[in-house]
Write a structure and sequence with these properties.
Layout: H1 13-77, H2 83-140, E1 143-145, E2 148-150, H3 156-168, E3 178-183, H4 192-195, E4 209-215, H5 218-231, E5 238-243, H6 244-250, H7 254-262, H8 268-282, E6 287-290, E7 295-297, H9 304-312, E8 316-319, H10 325-335, H11 340-349, E9 364-366, H12 367-380, H13 384-389, H14 397-408, E10 412-415, H15 431-441, E11 447-449, H16 450-455, H17 458-464, E12 468-470
Parallel strand pairs: 3-4, 3-6, 4-5, 8-10, 11-12
Antiparallel strand pairs: 1-2, 6-9, 7-12
Length: about 475
């Protein structure tokens, strides 16, 4: 395997040529798709114009027809009007009816022709979208050469970031194998008081796991550090506090820095998680877990990554019912983050709007597959910065990652409603629901909601052996 932390590219010339030809092929295909979409828009505009023209002619003809009908009715009642004059009015009325029918027929034929053109064009667009998706996934896949995992040149900039971090001494002194990324900001800082208060430093292995708190700005980073000092909040694991703004400067992402300062589309929480994931990979982590600040560790995180790695090896995710429009919007906007072709596939997989798949288990990111995932996003959105610019509050980090793995065909989504009598979302299941899922699928998540743990019997908690409680600020 390649050295941990090294984002190297040691492929042969043939491998480089294959990747370059794939990138060129994708660029040509994207250009064809763009032209097809422009043609599709033009045809739709022509159809609308034809529909307006036919409607206008029909309206004029119907108005004239109504006038003639009134005259004909008056002529019948007018005893002084001759038979010949009445016949002429009747002929005129018949002629007008024939003209209306002919206009409608011509317009309908024209519309049918254009509809057929659009239908053919839609097939072309669908084929191009499918091809683009396959090419993008091909570019994202790590290449295994002589036993070493090589990454796409699209991630070459990450090598530069890693070298820059080392040159300025900006990386953590500890280079852990595992990283827990937690975005945090002022209103959530009080969660630090309870996050680790159930475990002691003696229970935690040093140097293996690093908790990375991602603050928004440098000022906020200092506020969080001072809060820990003043309150004496217990953090018995190795940790660091980094600034999202600092990372943007390091990675030369000025647009994202401005976006973070303004919290555009309330996207900061997902942007900070992605920045934390990038930071973790750049500094050599083998795997990453992301979570929100409203968590409480019930036991040492020493075995957290081992449990999550085992769960991930089963290649399944779990989904339940969305409990409102917000969750449906999250599913819809997260699928739309991908190409139109893949978005359609994902909505079919998720039986949109029936399923919602957030926070059944802690979001887990193994290194190689995560590199492929980030490459795919960069491919879709013309670079790392473009991928960040597409984020919003609704585009949840791990939902995007789950969708990427589902597109590969190696993972599947399980509908928990087939196993439990519950209409809850997967981030609010009861302990008995989780136990039922464990009995059927031999899969135990590392966490449950604090509310579920409070409501359950102690014996169930002990049997399921949770590492964390989540949603600690949501107690009924």
């Amino acid at each position: 395997m390649a050295d941990k932390g090294k984002l190297t590219w040691r492929a042969s010339r043939e491998d480089h040529e294959l990747l370059n030809s794939t990138r060129l092929e994708l660029a040509v295909s994207e250009e064809q798709l763009s032209l097809a979409r422009v043609e599709n828009s033009r045809l739709r505009e022509e159809i609308e114009a034809t529909q307006r023209m036919v409607a206008s002619i029909e309206l004029q003809a119907e108005t004239e027809k109504a006038r003639l009908e009134r005259e004909f009715a008056a002529a019948i009642n007018n005893l002084e009007l001759g038979q010949g004059e009445r016949a002429l009015l009747q002929e005129e009325l018949a002629r007008l009816n024939e003209e209306i029918s002919r206009t409608v027929e011509v317009g309908s034929l024209e519309l049918a022709r254009k509809d057929a053109e659009i239908e053919n064009l839609q097939l072309t667009i669908a084929e191009l979208e499918q091809r683009n998706s396959e090419l993008a996934l091909r570019l994202a896949a790590p290449n295994v050469i002589n036993g070493s995992v090589e990454i796409s040149p699209l991630l070459a900039s990450m090598q530069e970031w890693a070298l820059r971090i080392d040159s300025i001494g900006g990386a953590a002194k500890i280079r852990p194998a595992h990283r827990i990324v937690i975005p945090i900001h002022g209103p959530k800082v009080t969660h630090l008081a309870n996050m680790f208060n159930r475990i002691s430093p003696k229970e935690c292995l040093s140097g293996e796991i690093l908790v990375t708190f991602v603050a928004t700005t440098n000022e906020e980073r200092e506020t969080i550090a001072n809060y820990i000092k003043v309150t004496g909040a217990t953090i018995p694991v190795d940790f660091e506090i980094i600034s999202a703004v600092d990372l943007c400067e390091l990675m030369n992402l000025p647009k994202i820095e401005r976006r973070i300062r303004e919290n555009v589309l309330n996207s900061n929480i997902n942007t900070k998680k992605f920045l934390g994931i990038y930071w973790s990979l750049i500094t050599g982590c083998e795997d990453v877990v992301t979570m929100d600040a409203d968590v409480a560790f019930l036991r040492s995180p020493n075995n957290l990554f081992e449990k999550l790695k085992d769960n991930f090896s089963r290649r399944v995710f779990f989904a339940g019912s969305p409990t409102g429009d917000l969750m449906r919007d999250i599913t819809s906007l997260s699928t739309d983050y991908f190409s139109p072709y893949d978005a359609h596939r994902l909505k079919s997989i998720m039986r949109y709007p029936e399923l919602y798949s957030w926070f059944f288990d802690a979001p887990y990111y193994p290194r190689d597959l995560t590199l492929a995932f980030l490459t795919h996003l960069a491919t879709l959105h013309q670079g790392h910065e473009g991928a960040f610019l597409k984020l919003s509050w609704h585009t949840f980090d791990h939902i995007l990652f789950m969708y990427f793995t589902l597109l590969s065909g190696d993972f599947r989504m399980i509908d928990v409603r087939d196993s439990i009598a519950s209409s809850n979302a997967t981030d609010s299941l009861s302990i008995s629901d989780i136990r039922r899922i464990k009995d059927i699928y031999d899969y135990q998540p590392v966490w449950a909601t604090l509310q579920a743990l409070i409501d359950s019997e102690g014996s169930q908690q002990e049997r399921l052996d949770f590492v964390l409680a989540i949603h600690t600020d949501r107690i009924a």
